[in-house]
Amino acid sequence: MAVVASYAKPEEAHLARLCLESNGIEARVLDDLTASVYPGISGAIGGVRVEVGDADETTALAVLGRSGGSTPLVCPLCGSTSVKAHRPGPLTAIALGLDVAAVGRTLRATCTACGNGFRVSIPARRVG
Q1: Per-residue pLDDT of the chain (128 residues; tens, 9 = 90+)
Q2: In whole angstroms, what separates CA 83 from the centre of its chain?
């Protein structure tokens, strides 16, 4: 299972889950009850997360607009589209000394063909 998105509010995570399920991707929401009971702790636990099967990860990221659109992620070293992406949580970012604000806009990706690790920036979404 792979986490494809994290939200501050359970409602947002469930909307993302419904969007994925309407596209034929089985998804589940993690920590929604914790965030509902203790709303102030949501950020400390990595938010309310949406999880899909490993085989659906790239498709789910594209459906949610997390990989820059419907274009698959491509390894800059070998050109393979066999790429596994994940987003570090805020506690991991703090432990590694990363910019916590930028964590939500960055995916860490690893090419399964050549083993190259790289970062993928996600463009900010315009609202309105």
Answers
A1: 899 988 888 988 898 899 888 888 999 999 999 888 887 777 778 889 999 999 988 888 888 876 434 456 778 888 887 877 766 555 555 555 554 444 445 667 888 889 998 877 654 443 33
A2: 14
Tokens of 5: 């998105």
Residue 4 φ/ψ, nearest 5 degrees: -110, -15
Cα angle for residues 27, 33, 36 (degrees, 5° grid): 120
| Spatial distance between the Cα atoms of 50 and 52, rounded to a whole number of angstroms | 7
Report how far residue 101's alpha carbon sits from residue 103's, in angstroms, rounded to the nearest whole number.
6
The secondary structure of the chain in percent helix, strand, coil, rounded to multiples of 5, reads 35, 25, 45
DSSP string, 78-110: T--S-EEEE---HHHHHHHT--HHHHTTEEEEE
Instruction: Label the pairing between strands 83-86 and 106-111.
Output: antiparallel
Residue 113 is which amino acid? Answer: A
* Predicted TM-score (pTM) of this structure: 0.52
